[in-house]
Amino acid sequence: MQVWERTVEGRHHRVEAEGSVRRRLRWYVDGELVAEKQTVEDGPELDSGDDHPDLGAVKLKFSTLGSPRRATLHGDVAAAIIGVGGTDLVPAEGSPAALHEARMLAHPNRYAARQAGIAVAIIAVPVLLGLLSRFLPDIDIPWPDIDLPSIPWPDIDLPSIPWPDIDLPIPHVDLEVPAWVRRVADVLGYVWPVALAFVLARGEVNRRRKRDQQAREEQERADQERAQQAEQEQAGRERAQQAEREQAQQEQAEPRD
Asked: How does pLDDT run across 38-91, given as a tens digit for each residue?
């Protein structure tokens, strides 16, 4: 089971995902089950619904093979569907999502290059298959000839509408694109998916680094608040003990009848 957790604006969020193909998703806030769902989607959303409209929605992301990747908290379900921005939850230590992030952050350039390589494969495989198909012999498969019955569709004579014939003076411009522009356009058709994959991969790395930095800052603030609270409690106990000692000293100093 994959688990993501994080405290956001004083509310503790926990998202659980079970299964690899058909997944069961659960979203808890402060220990209360807010939403659950069964789905086979790679990018499902969990909506808090009308009972908790202030909690927003969670967007999850899985790989094509079903591996968990990310859980992000959004302000509403519309933002979750778009998938832009939001607050990423932290995967449990040692979980598949955490191991994936550790490898990605340890070797960001390798991760980006691998994503670009996948884009190259997506482009190159259809081209190679097309080239190989030219060398394959023609195979004539004797498909069975099935005589399907004809359906006597009704012949409806619809009235013709006398549309006005308007002759607009459209000027004819004969433009010839230079050969170098056509060559650049042909090359860009293969280059831009690879460049886009690389940019998105680098953006994913930066997104994880930003989330980790925010999580560290939140943890530091929480530790400081707990330390301050502990100091205040200790100071209160010391004042109470001092008051008890002073009270005891006053009682001892009072003359007895």
From this structure: 999 999 999 988 888 889 999 999 988 888 988 999 988 898 898 878 888 989
Residue 220's SS3 state is helix
Cβ 47 vs Cβ 60: under 8 Å? no
Three-state DSSP at 85 gives coil
Whole-angstrom Cα Rg for the chain: 33
Cβ contact 91:97 at 8 Å: yes
Predicted pLDDT at 33: 94
Q: What's the whole-number average pLDDT of the chain?
A: 81
Give the three-state DSSP class for 188: helix
> What's the CA gap between 195 and 65, in Å, rounded?
23
User: Rounded to the nearest 10 degrees, what angle do helices 108-133 and 179-253 cross at?
Assistant: 150
Each residue's pLDDT tens digit, 169-185: 777 666 676 776 667 66
Residues 58 and 75 sit within 8 Å (Cβ to Cβ) = no
